[in-house]
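Worked example 2:
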Amino acid sequence: MNLFVNLFNDNGITSYMVLPKEPIQSGFLNQPAPVIDSSTMLEMCNDDDVIIDGWQMDEIYDSTRIASARRKIFWHHGCSIPIGKGYKGEYVYSDDSCYTDYWNVSGACSDYIKSQYGIESSVLQLFSPDNPDELYSGSLDYKNRKGILVLWARGAWRILKMLPKISSTTTVTIAYPGYSENTWYELLHSHRLFVSVDQGVRSTPLWQRAKYRLFGKENNYWKVPSSRLLGFPTPPFEAALCGCAVVGAPMGGGLEWMNKDNCYLAEDLKLESLLDQVTLALAANDQQLESKARSAFESVRIFDKEKAWTQICSLLSI
């Protein structure tokens, strides 16, 4: 959301990130968006404004509901839905919802929402934070790149399964949360492979769902589609922008650019398939990896600021 808030501001439309309480700017980004809290938003909001929500939290929805904005948009970053204490859950897609418009970051997720709730969602995808050609030009030749880069985040347990399959002579860099945007891009520019271990939002265990059914809204759970559709995973997208060959399974927005020609494609989030693709990628020579990486870059370079802004202008009639 920071990128889009900054995009509005860059084009002369004053915009803010709104957080329910004690707003803090992102420490990861080079250019974090200006932040205000919900109370300040309500004081500033007028009938000509537009509110774009990306989360189903009660505090966010309740502020949006009473705000005087002319349009209230729910921009779902995927299709998994938190249900129970603290969340509006599926209510955001009900006839009684305060939202006037619906967006999604992925065509596949938009289709799922329509099939489940009968709601049409316009697709507004993410975009490169910088000029794609400038990001790609910062890449090293493959002969000067080293090893594998993985992100310690959702699905990190898969890294432990992957390590025994990798030669001790191969460098494996595990990026832990807390790095800066510049550091992240430097890592992507200097590694041969980025391996995405992300599984998407995992389905809540049956016992926890039963607990919610028995004891009501003091508990919560995730309603997750069986395909584990995810919004628009950014790490593999950013790896492709930086000329780093990608290993992983496509999810959500990844379905719109990842294929067997431009990535080492794992089958439907299966661990064994992911490990097979890591082995295949490690056996590839510089020319083969660079060819994959270049093909991936050509597939993602179309997601740029100009395209995003043109689409926003169309969706908001500005």
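The CA atoms of residues 108 and 255 lie 8 Å apart. The two ends are 19 Å apart (CA to CA).
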